[in-house]
Amino acid sequence: QVQLVESGGGLVQAGGSLRLSCAASGRTIGNLAMGWFRQPPGKEREFVATITWNSAITNYADSVKGRFTISRGNAKNTVYLQMNILKAEDTAVYYCAAGPYTGHMNYWGQGTQVTVSS
Fold first, then answer.
1. Number of helices (H) and strands (E), helices first, in the chain?
2. For the segment 89-116, what is each residue's pLDDT rounded down to a tens digit?
3. What's the CA gap between 25 and 61, in Å, rounded?
4. Within 13 Å of residue 59, how many CA atoms lie on the same side as its CB?
5. In the list 33, 45, 105, 111, which could disulfide-bond 93, CB 3.0-4.6 Å?
6. Bridge-partner residues for 106, per DSSP?
7. Each residue of 1-56: pLDDT tens digit?
8. Vertex 69 angle, CA 11 and 49, to 5°
9. What DSSP designation does 100 have?
10. Residue 74 in this model has a pLDDT that exceeds 80
11. Distance CA 31, CA 18 (A)
């Protein structure tokens, strides 16, 4: 079993930056893909970014490409999402996820709120 805990959310002005962190515990996640997803108010959860187990491949939603960067910590039990040039439409609950590959996430965190004021 894998437990994921997100942190780093908060309130920021448009144009600002935030860095989300996700710490994993339980079984080793060094061989798991990880990702970030978000659920804007009143909408369904959507893909933001994923990273393979060895950090070789990253993928981003078109809406965040060039502004967000996903990365893994050296110990591979942490994943980060650096968010720059934030926009009001980035307001959402952000979830960390892990799974056997980027297209299959079966572990989820509880989420952290990101609010961008315009």
1. 0, 11
2. 999 999 999 999 989 999 999 999 999 9
3. 27
4. 11
5. 111
6. none
7. 899 999 999 999 999 999 999 999 887 778 899 999 999 999 999 999 999 999 99
8. 90
9. S
10. no
11. 27
- Triad 72, 73, 77: Cα angle to 5°: 90
Q: Cβ distance 118 to 15 under 8 Å?
A: no
What does the DSSP 8-state code read for residue 104? Answer: B
Query: What is the secondary structure of 35-75 as a DSSP string?
Result: EEEEE-TTS--EEEEEE-TTS--EEE-TTTTTTEEEEE-TT
CA distance 47 to 35: 8
- Give the largest CA-CA distance in the chain: 41
**pLDDT at residue 76 greater than cutoff 80:** no
At 73 the pLDDT is 86
